[in-house]
Structures are given as structure tokens and as C-alpha cells.
Write a structure and sequence with these properties.
The complex is a heterodimer of chains A (110) and B (117). Chain A is an all-beta fold and 110 residues long. Chain A has no helices and nine strands. In chain A, 0% of the residues lie in helices and 44% in strands. The chains are: A mainly beta (110), B mainly beta (117).
Chain lengths: 110, 117
């Protein structure tokens, strides 16, 4: 049950785009289309922003876009805004009722 | 409004035990797949345990054998009992509902557990 690998940090200027990768294995990301992404502001609970690789819950702006290729999932945030500055975590179903989170990426809006 | 409220955290000595509780409103715990997710200070999220609607339970290797997840249907609460606490168990523990799409869509605000002598 190793954590999925994310870059520790990413940054972009307001209005720009940033893409965060999430690398797993053929037993988790590569095996299932159950990748989700969470946004967490300091001291707050995580918030679901992407589920089933590409889908957005109601109320999440379409500036957030998720996709997957092989064992790697990615999240793109376009049109960066100040409120997008947060930690982002990916998650994948890993079979046998186990779930694995990514190591987390801190996004800074310059 | 759906709400999850955790309680039971605090300062626990190494080797000790604790019971965390999550009170739900706006949803029925027994009708959902409920989970505990923790976050050590300055670290990432870690799935800890889950209980299915049918009652089957599942644990991460890091707590397997020294933890028990359960629910009290009369109180509509989710509990986590953790024994033989170690320094690495220190974290904020979140209660979260997993929906049918295998995503954690509803979260509580968390309860902090500190392990220290």
C-alpha cells in the first residue's frame, strides 16, 4: 500500500494553468477508473473536486480537469485564481476495498 | 444539510488506547460506506479504515490488528477504536463518506490525536 507519487509543489501566475501528476501502479490507477482529487486549504477538511478520473461534482468550476493515461493520473487547473492556492491530493481505489492517497502537491499562485 | 462531526481526540500516551467518534446528521451511517482518513502533522492523507453498508470492515496495514471500526445505528455514529498507540498514529483523524463512485465526497472537520508521554 505505497502512496501514489505527486510532485511536492507546483506554481503558476494568475490566469495561467498548472498540471499535477499522480503516479501509481497497474494495481491501482492503471487498474481502475476510480481516481479522485481533493483540494485542501490549511486547517480545513479536504474537498472532493474530481471523481472517476474526469468528473466534477456539482459546484466545482470547469477550470478543474482530470485525466489519466496508464498508471498516471493528472489534474489541470486552468485560469489560476488566488483561491486555488492549496494542497491537492489524488486518490485511487486499489482493489480489495483498499484506497491509496497521493503524497500531495502544494500549489502556489504567484 | 449533511454534517459529520468527529470527537474523541486528545493527548494519549504511547501504548494507550482511544476511541474516536463521528456523529452524522443529514445522512444515515448504516446506509453508507463510512471511513476514517488521517493526516499526520505536515503530511499527506492516509486512508485508515472503512465499514460497508453490509457491515464488512477493512483496515490499512498500518492499523490492522490494533484497530476496530464500528457503528452505532441507534446514535447514527461511526467509531474507531485504536489500541497500542504509537508516535506515528499522531494525526488529525477525519470521518468521510465514500460514495458509489469510490470517492470521499463528505468529510468532517477532523479530531486531533497527539501521542506523547
Amino acid at each position: 500500500q505505497s502512496a501514489l507519487t505527486q510532485p511536492p509543489s507546483a506554481s503558476g501566475s494568475p490566469g495561467q494553468s498548472v498540471t499535477i501528476s499522480c503516479t501509481g501502479t497497474s494495481s491501482d490507477i492503471g487498474a481502475y477508473n476510480y481516481v479522485s482529487w481533493y483540494q485542501q486549504h490549511p486547517g480545513k477538511a479536504p474537498k472532493l473536486i474530481i471523481y472517476e478520473v474526469t468528473k466534477r461534482p456539482s459546484g466545482v468550476p470547469d477550470r478543474f480537469f482530470g485525466f489519466k493515461s496508464g498508471n498516471t493520473a493528472s489534474l489541470t487547473v486552468s485560469g489560476l485564481q488566488a483561491e486555488d492556492e492549496a494542497d491537492y491530493y489524488c486518490n485511487s481505489y486499489a482493489g480489495s476495498n483498499y484506497y491509496v492517497f497521493g503524497t500531495g502537491t502544494k500549489v502556489t499562485v504567484l | 444539510e449533511v454534517q459529520l462531526v468527529e470527537s474523541g481526540g486528545g493527548l494519549i500516551q504511547p501504548g494507550g488506547s482511544l476511541r474516536l467518534s463521528c456523529a452524522a446528521s443529514g445522512l444515515t451511517v448504516s446506509d453508507n460506506y463510512m471511513n476514517w482518513v488521517r493526516q499526520a502533522p505536515g503530511k499527506g492523507l492516509e486512508w485508515v479504515s472503512g465499514i460497508y453498508r453490509g457491515g464488512s470492515v477493512h483496515y490499512a496495514d498500518s492499523v490492522k490488528g490494533r484497530s476496530t471500526i464500528s457503528r452505532d445505528n441507534s446514535k447514527n455514529t461511526l467509531d474507531l477504536l485504536l489500541h497500542n498507540l504509537r508516535a506515528e498514529d499522531a494525526a488529525v483523524y477525519f470521518c468521510a463518506r465514500k460514495d458509489y463512485s469510490e470517492a470521499f465526497d463528505i468529510w468532517g472537520q477532523g479530531t486531533r490525536v497527539t501521542v506523547s508521554s
